[in-house]
Specification:
Elements lengths: L1 H22 L5 H32 L11 E8 L5 E7 L2 E7 L4 E8 L12 H16 L3
Antiparallel strand pairs: 1-2, 2-3, 3-4
Helix pairs in contact: 1-2
Length: 143
């Protein structure tokens, strides 16, 4: 945010210097070339600042950001791959289980709305140790 204002201040200073140079009468060959270069550089800086300001504004004000989302709520999300997710979405009195990839969204299941138990399930150290031992024994196979 501070960079944006600093860039605008630099742009305004460049604009002011370009306008003041344009207002001065051209007295010689060397003065005119420097004044033209200064005006071109000031114009370039102004155009770049306008582009950066527009990009910043578009990033801040995204379409649909202020829309009313009372109808649709994401209840849960689970990443199952680098670009794949499973979502539970509440819409009205139904929950939709959706498979989301980079190219498609597929309805996996539809169920009536219920209240979730929001307590996280904790994995104990002993439970993990048992699981690890079983996984090792399955990988090694019978001896």
């Amino acid at each position: 945010m501070h960079r944006f204002f600093a860039a605008n201040a630099i742009g305004l200073i460049s604009l002011w210097s370009g306008l003041s140079q344009a207002a001065e009468p051209v007295t010689g060959e060397t003065g005119s070339s420097w004044a033209g270069a200064g005006n071109a550089l000031s114009g370039l800086v102004i155009v770049l600042l306008i582009i950066l300001g527009a990009a910043w504004l578009l990033k801040r004000v995204q379409p649909g950001r202020f829309a009313d989302h009372h109808l649709l709520h994401t209840r849960s999300s689970l990443s199952v791959g680098p670009r794949e997710r499973v979502l539970v979405v509440e819409i009205g009195e139904q929950w939709l289980v959706l498979g989301v990839t980079a190219h498609t969204i597929t309805t996996l299941h539809t169920l009536p709305r219920t209240e979730l138990n929001e307590r996280p399930v904790a994995v104990t150290a002993a439970g993990f140790a048992d699981w690890l031992n079983r996984a090792k024994s399955l990988r090694e196979g019978p001896r």
